[in-house]
Amino acid sequence: MIRRRTALSVSAAGLLAVPLLTGCGSTPHPGAAAVVGKDRITVAQLQNQVEDVRKAQRSSPQGRQLLAGSARLGQDTLVRLIQYRVIEAAGRDNGIDVTRRELQERREEVEKLLGGPAAVDNRFLAAGIAPDQVDQELSAGLVRAKLEKKLGQARAVDELMKTSEALRVDVNPRYGTWDAKRGTARTVQEPWLRPAEQPAPEQPA
Question: pTM higher than 0.90 for the full model?
Answer without folding.
Answer: no
